[in-house]
Specification:
single chain; 250 residues; alpha+beta; 2 domains; 3-stranded antiparallel beta sheet; two-stranded antiparallel sheet; 5 strands; 48% helix
Length: 250
């Protein structure tokens, strides 16, 4: 496995080779296995990061996938779990330093990928009646499994949306947002079988982050600030299926 995942010479493999196995044939065999491993890495990451692949181009993405496989190979047999290290790997890449938004785009896509692998939840949220009988400091909200918040100094939600649009000039909003230095908070959740992305304002993002961190409803409301409309948030959460439970806490 070390020889497969890293650029290891044949000397380390010697104890594992048949006595009649020639060095040349062993080298060819190792190259074939490495090529297959690299192709597997590219296929796995292409499924999880389709927008990133479009942003950097197929050839560069293939090289990136193979480089990640060599430097941080998968630790699980399920290749659907391979890719968590890619955003940080991109941040450390000198070749991609001119496009600093790529790492956060990858973080958003990994959140979407993980969300679609998350456990199912009941369609109807439980404990809604507690909102009428308990103080906010005695309640906690639970969001659908896989829900995540990606906050970036780049317009990651707009970039993601541009690559999922059929509009003729679908990239114009992304170009404007990048030129303006627009920061964005992207909320990820699963609706049915598909993960969704919604851009949140600062108050909504602060509230969502507090809820995801397990804070009480009172703490989440404080984090959001006085202008936050909880009733409007709750209506949207019920319509979009964000909320799975309202839980009474001690």
């Amino acid at each position: 496995m070390t020889a497969l995942c890293h650029d290891t010479g044949l000397a380390e493999l010697a104890p594992w080779l048949r006595a009649d196995s020639g060095r040349a044939s062993a080298a060819r065999g190792l190259l074939a296995y490495r090529a297959n491993a690299g192709a597997s890495a590219e296929r796995a990451l292409s499924a999880a990061f389709p927008v990133l692949r479009q942003l950097v181009g197929a050839e560069s993405f293939g090289a990136l996938a193979r480089s990640l496989w060599l430097h941080q190979p998968p630790t699980q047999g399920d290749l659907a779990q391979f890719g968590e290290a890619l955003p940080a790997f991109i941040e450390g890449s000198a070749e991609l330093a001119d496009e600093p938004y790529l790492a956060d785009c990858a973080r958003l896509e990994w959140a979407l990928h993980r969300c679609e692998l998350a456990a199912d939840a009941a369609d109807a949220p439980s404990g809604l009646e507690l909102l009428a009988s308990h103080d906010p400091d005695g309640l906690r909200l639970e969001l659908r499994p896989g829900s995540a918040l990606c906050s970036s100094r780049f317009p990651v939600a707009t970039l993601w949306a541009a690559h999922h649009s059929d509009e003729p000039d679908r990239f114009a909003p992304a170009r404007r947002a990048l030129a303006a230095g627009q920061r964005e908070h992207a909320f990820v959740w699963r609706q049915g079988w598909r993960a969704q992305v919604l851009r949140l304002d600062a108050a909504e993002a602060a509230f969502t982050a507090a809820v995801l961190n397990g804070s009480s409803l009172a703490q989440a409301l404080t984090a959001a600030g006085e202008g936050f409309d909880f009733a409007a948030w709750l209506t949207q959460a019920l319509q979009r299926g964000w909320l799975t439970a309202v839980i009474a806490i001690a």
